[in-house]
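pinned: reference chain
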Amino acid sequence: MGAKSGLALKALQWFVRGIQFLSCAVALALFSYFLAVASRHNYNIPTWSKAVEGIAGIGVLYTLAGLLLLCCVAGHPFASGIALILDVAFIGAFIYVAQANRGGASSCRGTVSTIFGRHSASDRLGSGLPSYHQICQMHSAVLAVSIIAIVFFLISAFLEIALVRHRRKERRFGPSPANGYTSGYAKRGFFSRFRRSKGSEEEAINPNTLPEHTQPDQLRPSYNTESTAAGPQYNKYGESGFQHDGQTAYPERTSYPAAGQQQHYGDGTYTR
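pinned: its structure tokens
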């Protein structure tokens, strides 16, 4: 289960990085075309267009590196921490890109605002060049992909957090009987979180401890050792006694003679 969820997270992050790469590539391609046309025909190049070009170019390099390294360092705390910071930074950067291309939000008819200034949509940049209407539509495309990039950079930031947490769980719960001695952590039901006290008691039991021996109800009497337990009616000296350390041991007196009668013992005569 753990391996499958980790693979699913990596596949989802790879898809997200792919969308980011395509969005950055579209913005880079269109603004590279704008700057090439402006440089060839001596148009004034605004500073914000160079900033958009730089953001799109760095975004292409970053997302391409993310696609290539995802299978190697996915979920690593250091790599994911850097990726999380860069994702948040690119969210702010593409907000700036969307704001710079806000002219593409119009219908691209009448007077349009483009990188080459405000002109009528029916005018053309020059012979063999696109019209301002087409330039406005290119700005609309950059605006659209910048919004898509913002959303997917936000998603990738949350996925980086999920990958780090999954990696920590994988390292915390190694192979065990609960997960069939495979990688990942054991399956847990929805209501298992409400049985934490019972689970903690079960975890406290050492699985390597041998079971306790059963205790018999009745213990066997023995004549060989004094440490062996015996029943309440058992006389350890036997019926007639035996020699121990040079002295003769006799059984305990359990009855006494009647009045006026004598009873002989090995240690003397008892008269009542």
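why pinned: Residues 132-172 form the longest helix (41 residues). The chain is about 50% helix and 5% strand.
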